[in-house]
Amino acid sequence: MLKRILKSLHVLGAAGMIGALSAHLILLSVTPPPSDLNDYALMRAGIAAIAQWLLLPSVAIVLISGLLAMAAHRPFIYARWVWFKLGLGIVVFEGTLIGVQGPAVRAAEVSAIALTSQVDQRIIDELVRREWGSLWVILGV
Predict the structure, then answer these.
(1) What's the burial of 29, exposed, middle or buried (CB within 10 Å: 0-12/13-18/19+)?
(2) DSSP secondary-structure letter at 51?
(3) pTM listed for this prediction
(4) Were 108 and a residue from 44, 73, 82, 131 both cysteine, which residue would form a disulfide, CB within 3.0 to 4.6 Å?
(5) Burial bucket for residue 17 (CB in 10 Å: 0-12, 13-18, 19+)
(6) Hey, what's the torsion of the CAs at 15, 17, 18, 20, to 10 degrees?
(7) 90-129: string of b/e by CB count within 10 Å (b at 16+)?
């Protein structure tokens, strides 16, 4: 029974993670240019909310349920593929924190600041460039 619950959590977390990454990519691709600051800031706030409230919890559920599954099912401890998958899981978790969620939140903050004061366009461009690359790397892993 415990194994089924953990597997269900793992699959549910993976579905949430892929859904959040896909939504992030879609919203990023239809985001208006930063010159249209009001709409841009709203879209960036939406992307940041997806990263914070769906992506990060989903990745955490995948990692934690995977670790618990290893503990609950003894043969997993001796399977090399499980350890490889654990390593990839940690890379995905860190990559999501540093490469996706962080830039998404930072871009939302910068665009909100830009509504009231002048912000260098290169800062926004660099954040978006990193975000695109990180999204594709995380999806690939």
Answers:
(1) exposed
(2) I
(3) 0.84
(4) 44
(5) buried
(6) 120
(7) eebbebbeebbbbbbbbbbebbbebeeeebeeeebeebbe
